[in-house]
């Protein structure tokens, strides 16, 4: 996606806005497939960017869905429920019941004993088969301990309506250590073997989140191809012969997004150049950013040829001294009216920020494919959400 297209998006949608490059997204999926062992499947974690779910669905094997909202989005986009992995530490019983009664082809993760009771109850009540993945904990609140996983497995194996497809494991994001991936995979491999011996259970699949990192900051050196090679070697070294599915968010989506924000004011205080933008930290989050010290990949949408570089600190327009997007970044000829492009903003930025703070608008979202722009969300005011309802509380207000 070139800057002319971004400029068109900014003109049509206004700033601040996000522009997601669907061609780049699909190329990224193809790149990952090309750098992983044959037969390894890919699952897109919708939380990384729900605006991409419908676009990525035709080129991805699964969609990991973690909330009723994500489920509703995927339904609305007409995604195939047979590819859903319904995950999440809280599975609202009414939502699970609604989904299972409508469908049944989806897979559910089991993350606690009570989730297992809930899911089993739904299958038994509907007399319909249900497909489960048992999520193993990595020590966090997510997933089951091994003894609980085995208790679930033993019970489920005795239930004709339940099929346990295998294990799911996700231990964190932005994992740069190939050694750590190899260790986790070796441990999972050993555990799958133990389950075979102890529980006479042979898993069909392992869904594993490698937490593939995105390189967000200038000057950082991360050799992604070497990392993917090491991951592939660790996968190939497993004795497990079932399906492997890699569950990914950031590693798929980060690179396809740009966040555009306009400089609306500038000033010099104690010799330092400050630029105020119409965006802010409620709309842009780079994992690993520290007090705005690191320099993400940014550029001016319309450069000023011949102008000298000066150091700028870029602020958003929230009422907090913390609303600094980046400190002391060299930019040539920056002035009010310029649009700054923050690159690699395709994952999490659009949903993770504290977007209701100051009742500022939610930025527009633009999808770009083959040079054609599509408005996926208008610039949306939030003041209505932050205005108290006038009437006394009644049942009508619940939803
Ligand atoms: C269960 C699960 N799978 C996948 C992901 C995606 O992680 P990442 O963006 O690091 O690839 C997450 C992120 O929180 C997750 O919780």
In short, what is this structure?
This protein folds into two domains: 35-248, Alanine racemase (TIM Barrel, Alpha-Beta Barrel); 255-377, Lyase, Ornithine Decarboxylase, Chain A, domain 1, CATH 2.40.37.10. It contains eleven helices and 17 strands. The chain has helices at 3-13, 22-34, 53-56, 68-76, 93-102, 113-126, 146-157, 178-199, 224-236, 250-253, 349-352, and strands at 17-21, 41-45, 62-65, 84-86, 107-110, 130-135, 162-170, 205-209, 243-248, 257-269, 272-277, 298-300, 309-315, 324-332, 339-342, 364-369, 372-377.
Annotated CATH architecture of the largest domain: Alpha-Beta Barrel
- The structural class is alpha/beta
What small-molecule ligands were found? Answer: pyridoxal-5'-phosphate
Q: Estimate the helix proportion, in percent.
A: 25-40%
